[in-house]
Write a structure and sequence with these properties.
By secondary structure, this protein is of the alpha+beta class. Helix content is 56%, strand content 14%. Helix 1 packs antiparallel against helix 2 (109-127).
Length: 208
């Protein structure tokens, strides 16, 4: 009986070990699948994080390129404006020289040559987008005009330009040099004569 009991116990023990091993084999795949799923979720989160960082870096690079391009364009416009401003006094001198030429010399060959130079100069400025600022008769605008006098005028309305003293120029919407102008303050208002005399004043008594 004792030997038989020992064998039964051995069989039961072996069966229990086999069941434990089977349970362990079943549990291990479940744990591995859970770990893999967790690792997959972490990978997805990292992927989304990397994608967001890449998109941000790409947007920052694009903005930096646009900003650099704008700064380059602005620097070019500033340099161009500086050169054009230096050319304007030459245009002034040429125009004043033509105004001072006697009429009997206007048709001479050298004057015709100077006219050609002036036209080329004007064409050059026009090609660069330079245009004269309208002044005479226009409403005074401190952005485009610089007033040297405010004076009465019976023909030009108050706040309007009477005469342009020096021509102004602009390139696109940027002022290269404002027009120097005389501005009207309206007609002269003369006090009306008080025929009745000032209030409280005694009327004059004629003698004789």
């Amino acid at each position: 009986m004792g030997v038989r009991d020992d064998k039964v116990r051995e069989m039961e023990q072996s069966q229990a070990e086999a069941e434990g091993t089977a349970e362990q084999v079943i549990d291990e795949p479940e744990d591995e699948v859970t770990a893999l799923l967790q690792e997959l979720e972490e990978s997805k989160e990292k992927q989304a994080e990397y994608l967001d960082g890449w998109q941000r870096a790409r947007a920052e690079l694009a903005n930096a390129r646009k900003r650099f391009q704008r700064e380059q364009e602005q620097a070019y416009r500033n340099a161009k404006a500086d050169v054009l401003v230096r050319l304007l006094p030459i245009m002034d001198d040429l125009e004043r020289a033509f105004e001072a030429i006697p009429e009997d010399e206007l048709q001479t060959n050298w004057i015709e040559g100077m006219k050609l130079v002036l036209r080329k100069f004007e064409m050059l400025l026009k090609q660069e987008g330079v245009a004269p600022i309208e002044a005479a008769g226009q409403e005074f605008d401190p952005y485009y005009h610089q007033a040297v006098t405010h004076e009465t005028s019976g023909t030009v309305p108050d706040g309007h330009v009477i005469e342009e003293v020096q021509k102004g120029y602009k390139v696109d919407d940027r002022v290269l040099r404002p027009s120097i102008v005389r501005v009207s303050s309206g007609p002269l208002v003369e006090p009306e004569a008080d025929k009745e005399g000032a209030p409280g004043e005694e009327p004059a008594i004629e003698e004789g």
